[in-house]
Amino acid sequence: MDRVDVVRGGKTLLNKISLAIHAGERWALLGANGAGKSTLLGLCGALAHPTRGTVDILGKRLGRVDIRELRESIGHVNPRHPLHSALTTEEVVLTGATGTVELMSRWQPSDHERARADQLIGLLGMGSKSRELWTTLSQGERGRVLIARALLPNPRLLLLDEPSTGLDVAAREQLLDTLDLVHAAQPDLASILVTHHLEELPTTTTHAALLRQGSLESEGSVNEVLTTELVSQCFDYPLEVARNNDRWTAKAIRQSSATG
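The structure assignment produced for this chain is given below.
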């Protein structure tokens, strides 16, 4: 992204964003609600175009490329997946081959696509639920299925929009372990994970960017960006940031009151 602005309805959602993400880098995109995280992720996923500035994804510039073809190289995980049909786990994963929510009419997966789906379902610990209906899965299980779906076309870029939404602690930890497993298995895969909770970052996170009111406050190595000073500034609140065993936490800095 080079000096990207996004304006909708007269409101500036992103302001002069310049950001470069390379193969094998695992980025965390953090900021308060309304900071512009999902808008920025939509640009990365070729789901929207900038008002001003340029966006180049996998060597292709938005506005000069068939975005349907470009999206085939991008895996997108949205926990609010709008599926309404009674599809099985395997069928949901196979929709990743067509980039659609539902199975396409008269479309049949190839033997290679079926084998790839089975491999990913097993890798993400869902082998025993391959034939179970999506509607019967827990929120955590659905999250793992959606990651398998996103990985089916062997994308070069993986986008995760608040993947821990609605998960309890155990399911969240299982999801983060899954993401670490994916990165270990595919070291050249670039990823961007959107969240506003430091506790939801995988241990394999390498870089971070902080968004505040549509502007990029800081970006770079995760150790340089996720500091007490920068995170507090981003969220407009005094926070103490700590890292332990490659996991991050943030808690409020409580001011001691003076006594008479």
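Interim note for the steering committee: Helices lie at 37-44, 67-71, 89-94, 111-123, 139-151, 169-185, 222-225, 228-235. The chain has a mean pLDDT of 91.
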